[in-house]
Design goal:
Blueprint (H helix, E strand, L loop, with lengths): L2 H13 L2 H4 L3 H11 L3 E2 L2 E2 L7 E4 H27 L1 H5 L5 H8 L10 E9 L2 E8 L6 H12 L2 H6 L3 E5 L4 H14 L7 E4 L12 H11 L4 E4 L4 E4 L2 E4 L2 E2 L2 E4 L3 H7 L5 H7 L4 E3 L11 H6 L2 H4 L4 H10 L3 E3 L4 E4 L2 E4 H7 L4 E5 L9 E2 L5 H13 L2 E5 L6 E7 L2 E16 L2 E11 L9 E10 L1
Parallel strand pairs: 3-23, 7-8, 7-12, 12-13
Antiparallel strand pairs: 1-2, 4-5, 4-21, 6-23, 9-10, 10-11, 14-19, 15-16, 17-18, 17-19, 20-21, 21-22, 22-23
Amino acid sequence: MTQLGEAIARFHKLLTSDPIRSSGWVEQLREQMAARRLVVNHRPVSPVLRPHFLSRRQYISLVKTAETLSSAIARMLGLIVANQHLLNRMELLPGEKMLASLDPGYSYASALAFLGSHVNNGAVHFANSSSDMPTGIVYSEMLSDLLWDTAPVKEFRKRYRLEKTGGTKPFVQALLKAYKDFGGRKAPAIALVEFKGPFVTTETHELELLAELLQRLGYQAQTVAPEQLTYREGVLRADGFVVDLVYRAVRAHEFLLRFDLDHPLVRAYRDRKVCVVNSFRAELGRKKSLLSLLTDETLTRDFPPAERKAIRETIPWTRVAAQAKATYGAQTVDLPEFIAKNRSKLVLRPNDDSAEQPVFEGWTTDDAGWERAMRTALRDHYVVQERFEAPPVAFPVDVYGDVQMRELRVDVQPHTFLGKVHGCSARIAPAGGAFSTVAGIAPAFVIEPR
């Protein structure tokens, strides 16, 4: 067992000790989460009863690799915006393509981004980028503070040095840096734009908490629905509130399902009368088709060696599912034929993360099911990706007052602000990928022996 594995086993053993078990700390933790609005759809935002632990070596490797990949992603996004052929390969809606063509008023597509990764011993693998509207920063910081003071973590800290990761300070700094680069010269009035009312499928309080944080720092800030916005005489307003800076918490494709390109937010953005963070160009960074371009060595051959090495070692081979030829290693293959013959090592993922579009894992699908999945993928904007499976991690979970161990999948998300990593958090979900209430956020702590 590794040192990290021994530390985690020690933490789990602490939970069964009489002083900890009888202290009522689980009930107190749940009450504090509810009181601080750390809930999503009326459930605690964190389903687990310990932080996700990373060794110092793992964290340093994660930061270095994430920053290198962030640089490669920014480089590729620059190529895409300047090249219509590459833009066409992104499988965008027409409205998304138009929005991506607009200059946001600052030089980077994403001021704030998460990279979805799996950390296993010394290896790091990246599967996606949430560079349009990263979520969980406020929740993760508040969860870190709550867990830090629980009975088992206090006892655990007597033997191990723990370091919290993540935080809202660099988030706010990046938000304001984008506004300054846009040309802002005063303290901005900030609208945090999100869907409300009948458009909401997930009830979360994170934007409210972020607005309250900005208010405590002295900024005018409020959450706003897109239908509250008006644009007249070069000024964007929300029910009379003049808006200088928009924190965008609505995805472009969902926005375009409800509104057209004459919406006040789009017109103000197009006229460069409001700073929008993240820009609509950031949508390019979360499409799975971006990984197809990054893993195409004919496009990255002029990238710096460190970026090419990071891509090669951490991003699985990915191609847009289409009736086309594709490169796989040194071979050129007919893509549909290759997908059909290599079911056991491939997965089909929607280009856009969506609850309506399933992921198809070839190794869990029979031949007939894989043939149906292929037809769906070739029709509905999917990518094919080489299989990578992260081993599940054991976590204690509160099941109606009973602490039980569950094997869960962990996606570690480095928080990247203006290309630099400042902490990380973890997304927790069932190992099999099925729907479950045992899903949510866990803060990440760096651990070292004393």
